[in-house]
Amino acid sequence: MNLESLVHVCLAGLSTGMFIWLVASGLTLIFGVLGVLNFAHGSFYMLGAYCAFTALKLMGGNFWLGLLVGPLVVCAVGFVIERFFLRHVYGLELPYQLLLTFAFVLLFDNLVKIIWGAGSIGSPSVPGLSGSVNILGRFFPVYNLFIIVVGPLVALGLWALIEKTWYGRIIRAASTEREMAAAIGVRVPALFTGVFVFGTWLGAVGGALAVPYIGLLTPGMGEAIIIEAFVVAVIGGLGSLKGAFLGALVIGLLSSFGTRFLPAFDMFLTFILMAAVLLWRPQGFFGKAV
Fold it and tell me: 28, 88, 140, 270: least surrounded by Cβ within 10 Å?
């Protein structure tokens, strides 16, 4: 492989990794604070894509307004799910949480088919971010470069929120000692609702950004991304945002190089890596041993 090919494979891996990170960040945040493995997070990603696409069409093709409005609609859905359903299973075993959230996956998949149809929908390009740029004699999509920039900015924003703000301190306190946080006056149920809605928003933003990235919107598109997001979360350590960010980078680069050299074993390599990490360090890169 020459230098030009190496650079482009790395850029493709970085864009894939940052795209997965945008979805995995919300999944990781929700588990880290609420202790809930939300399998329906992929559905929030799907709803974010469809709602952003609809808002984009209704607002005259303005992608940025669609990116703003679409995820906010999904946040309302996340609020209802947490307030009236998930709140009642926080104290139950993990299989009950997975069964409940998987039920919402089936519900939302069929809801999308009813509203938008069972066929695929072509996604539009973004003015100013369409086309390609010449990098070392080869063309690379501008939108992929945009995703590479957005991913670290989201990671930096989450780090600042969790580590440098008073609200972040309250979140960390409630996730560590719920009873103690409640005893000193923290409204833990309201806090958990806010964190879940924010995590939902992150997943929906990932879906909205996927509208120009993946080319086609299809019902059930959330199932593929949630598997990759779970792999990233497990490798990085469940509940660890920095672990999820590193895991997304590793998976993105592995997928890119696997596609380039071993296309028949692309997904297989991802699961081999996950198995190796779990054998070497069961809690993941930055997870806590229990």
Answer: 88
Q: What is the mean pLDDT of the chain?
A: 88
pLDDT digits (tens, 9 = 90+) for 241-284: 999 999 999 999 988 888 887 776 667 788 888 888 888 888 88
Contacts of 157 (CB under 8 A, 6+ apart): none
Q: What is the 3-state secondary structure (H, E, C) of the chain?
A: CCHHHHHHHHHHHHHHHHHHHHHHHHHHHHHHHHCCCCCCHHHHHHHHHHHHHHHHHHCCCCHHHHHHHHHHHHHHHHHHHHHHCHHHCCCCCHHHHHHHHHHHHHHHHHHHHHHHCCCCEECCCCCCCCCEEEECCEEEEHHHHHHHHHHHHHHHHHHHHHHHCHHHHHHHHHHHCHHHHHHCCCCHHHHHHHHHHHHHHHHHHHHHHHHHHHCEECCCHHHHHHHHHHHHHHHHCCCCHHHHHHHHHHHHHHHHHHHHHCHHHHHHHHHHHHHHHHHHCCCCCCCCCC
Q: Does 146 score more than 90 pLDDT?
A: yes
Q: Is residue 277 a contact partner of residue 232, using CB atoms and an 8 Å limit?
A: no
pLDDT at 76 over 90: yes
pTM summary value: 0.91
Q: Which domains does the chain have, with CATH numbers?
A: 3-280 (1.10.3470)
